[in-house]
Specification:
heterodimer; A: mainly alpha; ABC transporter involved in vitamin B12 uptake, BtuC; Arc Repressor Mutant, subunit A; 2 domains; two-stranded antiparallel ribbon; 73% helix; B: mainly alpha; 17 helices; 3 strands
Chain lengths: 386, 375
């Protein structure tokens, strides 16, 4: 592994961490699409900044572009406040317009601007190590590394300083306001940080990857935990993993690094989406199936409780009466037997004492909808856990 | 070439005619279907789908090795549909919200598409150049067969929309009610989503992945401001979309170095801003005017009722008072006083005013809903 390769991975990992932190809060605040809007809308700011500074890495340009990001957020909110369109439409209207202005500005000045729209959208991480920061004649490392390092330091500093405020305002804006932390200040603070991170990560990894690095790790982490600190940690781990593994995939395929990091994020998300223990697709489908069986079981027990006549309780009769398929009836009967809810005596089904008690409680619960009634049943049955 | 030349050339020049026709048809069909997307609160779905279509284009090229635009669009359609249904799967099966699902699919699919595109570019195959036109679109590459394809798809869209108009409409406004009426909501839903995806995919070649969502949203958002009826809205959106296409093409053709996609988007955005401001019933301008008018009316009434309370304390209701005493009261302006005189509620005599019989009568019944004589 050469020095340049190590530097690329280091930059990618730092970008991943810097994106994962604001990304987690954006996902929790249901504002994930704002990051997409910001990443597109900063283009005109970037172009104007470039006209002024003539240097893609200058701090002024980053600030100017980040300002455009905040302006985008404000614009979206203003449009939304008029009540003429919904929030998502407002987002969808603002950023393509701003992005178009940026593209046209680049096109009209194509001769004197060394700025390429493709590069803005995709970035080129492979070239990052060659643009070095030279202070007093000494080469102290790639410029992107310094930029993203500074942004990351600021982000982490702010996160530690305002963790409590961020947490409260994210989950309960009303409580936060009543405790004296203005949710508005936190909101715009977060938006500013997200904008700065987007711009800083921009020329290294491009607009689309910034969005992917903000949303995907946070979404994966959200499927695995409900603890904010753990979620932040997991998001960072996923981000760094995708950054490093993505680099090697790109190396192997000889393709865009940004694209392959995103693809690795996609693979990670797909795995988490399918296999997350409680919230993954398979777990959810299994739970839904269990719930369906348990609803059937309950229906069955209620039926038994309501009928004392022998013919109503005959095994064969149940098939036609409740209109179940054979397999389903068998599953339900087995489940009831296993839990000692029923006795089958000469093909006549009868409730046991336990089953009788259970059914009464269940009816109570359905009628009153009070959780306390079924505390002890929760262990056995998925149905009452929701 | 300036705008005038453009319009004189539009009917004779093959390329210009094709492009103009193509963007006009595209604008019309996206406007039409966009109305449904906007009303279904799926505005950003278009953004996600258009990005999600990219890997489909690249994969179609990798598999067939041909650059035929129909094959590529088929790939885009499949991958756009996969993206759409995955988004739906994420929203319904996990606790991730719709914004997260959209952002995820958008960025992940697009990133994967870019990986494939850069991978293709490194292939020893001279045929691959030009795939990246799907990023920003190049209306200039439209040929007559593309326009025919657009026209046919638009025709099918129209027929399906007319056939299922009732179903689309009822699903849009009350999904639960639709279900209870016995309609197959899943089928209608899939049908409408498929057509939205189709419209987006059609536009990729012209406007490109990044800006396609605006084509879907902007005409519909503009049309929404002018009407409350779905039929009118769809019709207006189609008109706005078509005009954005034509004007955008005209402007970009008359200037150097302007790609068509961004210009069309800007023209469509101008339509939106115009509608936001000048629409008679919802627009910001008229809303502000109404607001000011209401405030004036209120001031007028406040002054009148204040005068009434003063006049009440005197035996002769027309007893003159100085204007000065009104100054203590907020509702008073010279204009409202003049208005009172015009309505013959008050007579002025130098610096003195006095309430007329009519004015007293009106003021006494100012807050009485049953008294409508003077309205």
């Amino acid at each position: 592994m050469s020095n340049a390769q190590f530097e690329i991975q280091l930059i990618a990992s730092l970008v991943a961490i810097a994106c994962a932190i604001p990304g987690t809060f954006l996902v929790l605040r249901k504002m994930a699409m704002i990051s997409d809007a910001i990443s597109h809308a900063i283009l005109p700011g970037l172009v104007i900044g470039f006209f002024i500074t003539q240097d893609l890495n200058s701090p002024l340009l980053i600030l100017l572009a980040a300002l455009t990001g905040v302006v985008t957020v404000i614009l979206v909110e203003r449009i939304q406040k008029t009540g003429l369109v919904k929030e998502d439409t407002a987002i969808g209207l603002v950023f393509p317009a701003l992005f178009s202005i940026g593209v046209i500005m680049i096109a009209k000045n194509a001769n004197d601007v060394h700025l390429d729209v493709d590069a803005v959208l995709l970035g080129e991480l492979a070239f990052a190590p060659f643009d070095r920061l030279i202070v007093a004649g000494i080469n102290i490392g790639p410029k992107s590394l310094w930029i993203i390092g500074t942004i990351l330091t600021i982000t982490v500093g702010l996160l530690i300083a305002f963790f409590k405020e961020l947490k409260v305002s994210t989950f309960d804006a009303g409580l936060s306001a009543s405790l004296g932390f203005s949710p508005v200040v936190i909101h715009y603070g977060l938006m500013t940080m997200a904008s700065i991170t987007t711009v800083g990560a921009f020329d290294a990894v491009g607009a689309i990857l910034v969005v992917a690095l903000m949303i995907a790790p946070a979404a994966c982490a959200y499927l695995l935990t409900t603890d904010l600190k753990k979620m932040l940690g997991l998001a960072i781990v996923f981000g760094v993993f995708a950054a490093v593994s993505g680099y090697w995939v790109a190396h192997w395929l000889d393709a865009s690094i940004a694209g392959s990091i995103t693809t690795m994020l996609g693979v990670v998300f797909l795995i988490v989406y399918l296999f997350a223990p409680n919230k993954g697709l398979i777990a959810v489908m299994y739970r839904e199936k269990q719930q369906r069986i348990e609803v059937s079981l309950l229906t069955f027990l209620l039926h038994l409780k309501n009928h004392n006549e022998k013919e109503e309780r005959h095994v064969n009769h149940l098939n036609e009466h409740i209109n179940w398929q054979k397999v389903k009836s068998k599953t339900v009967l087995d489940l009831a037997l296993k839990n000692n809810m029923i006795l089958i005596d000469d093909k006549i089904v009868a409730l046991t004492d336990k089953g009788d008690e259970f059914t009464s409680k269940a009816i109570d619960y359905i009628i009153t909808n009070e959780d306390a009634q079924i505390e002890d049943m929760k262990e056995d049955f998925f149905l009452f856990r929701g | 070439m300036n705008l005038q030349e453009y319009f004189s050339l539009v009917f004779s020049d093959y390329t210009l005619r094709t492009i103009t026709l193509g963007t006009a048809i595209l604008g019309a069909v996206t406007g039409m279907l966009g109305s449904f997307a906007v009303l279904r609160k799926q505005s950003l779905l278009g953004d996600a789908i258009s990005h999600a279509a990219l890997p489909g284009i690249a994969l179609a090229f990798l598999i067939t090795g041909a650059k035929d635009s129909n094959t590529l669009l088929l790939g885009a359609l499949v991958s756009g549909l996969v993206g759409t249904f995955w988004i739906r799967g994420i929203i319904t099966k996990t606790h991730l919200k719709s914004d997260t699902a959209l952002g995820l699919i958008l960025s992940l699919f697009f990133g994967f598409g870019m990986l494939l595109l850069t991978f293709i570019q490194k292939q020893p195959n001279a045929n691959q150049a030009g795939l990246d036109k799907y990023l920003f679109g190049q209306a200039a590459t439209l040929v007559e067969s593309d326009v025919w394809l657009m026209a046919i798809v638009t025709g099918i869209c129209l027929i399906v929309m007319l056939l299922f108009w009732k179903e689309f409409k009822i699903l849009l406004f009350d999904a639960d009610y639709t279900k209870t009426l016995g309609f197959n909501t899943k089928f209608i839903d899939v049908l409408i989503t498929t057509f939205i995806v189709l419209a987006i995919v059609l536009g990729l070649q012209t406007v490109g992945v990044v800006l396609m969502s605006a084509m879907l949203l902007a005409p519909a958002a503009a049309a929404r401001q002018w009407t409350n009826s779905l039929g009118t809205m769809v019709f207006l959106a189609a008109i706005f979309g078509a005009f954005s296409g034509v004007f955008g093409t005209a402007i970009s053709a008359s200037q150097d170095n302007l790609s068509t996609g961004p210009v069309i988007v800007i023209v469509a955005s101008v339509f939106v801003v115009f509608s936001f401001i000048f629409s008679p019933s919802r627009g910001l301008l008229f809303r502000q005017i109404r607001f000011i008018k209401n405030r004036r009316d209120l001031e007028f009434q406040k002054t009148l009722s204040f005068m009434y309370h003063i006049a009440e304390t005197h035996e002769d209701i027309s007893h003159p008072h100085t204007i000065k005493i009104l100054n203590n009261f907020q509702g008073f302006t010279r204009k409202t006083l003049q208005k009172l005189v015009d309505k013959n509620y008050v007579t002025l005599d130098g610096a003195m005013w006095s309430l007329t019989e009519e004015g007293f009568e009106t003021a006494a019944n100012l807050y009485n809903q049953n008294f409508k004589k003077h309205e």
